[in-house]
Amino acid sequence: MQQNPDEYYLDGILGNKNLVLLDIYKEFLPGIKRFVIREGGGPDEAEDVFNQALTDIFARLKNDGIQIHKSFSSYLFVTCRNLWRKECAKKIKERVTKETFSEHMDKTTTEETVREQERWALFEEKFAELSEKCREILGLHLKKISGREIMERLGYASETTVRQRIFKCKSRLVQLVRTDRRYKI
Description:
Blueprint: H1 5-14, H2 18-38, H3 43-63, H4 72-99, H5 101-107, H6 110-129, H7 132-142, H8 147-154, H9 159-179
């Protein structure tokens, strides 16, 4: 019996299957890029949103499973759209926050600062547990280095391979953080 496309994509994400991930990138990334660019973003931001969406879907599959009511493509698009809107809202909030930074610092409690430091320490600890290659590629990605430049620097065959590797490394990092008992702090 042939697997339906939704199951094919979800099983591929959950299993980190390279051919399925490649199919997902080829099939859906161009549409997400068009959407993000139309909404005022750039190609790199679109790729970041797409990668984050796949990472989120992977985490949901790993933890709770996913109920898709229409199609995988709709689910992926809605996830990307929501992430992009959240990113836009964050940018607006950052502008406002910079203007009111001193007011915010007065309101920030020591407890909140300690919790934030604990979260950051957990992230750094789990980041250090990743393989050297994952730390290197995620470090470049976090510095907003383009996929093409990462490909050239690290000798990957294509930008798609770079995106897949970033996805896998992010997924591993999310898994390490979420399985730590301190995660819910």
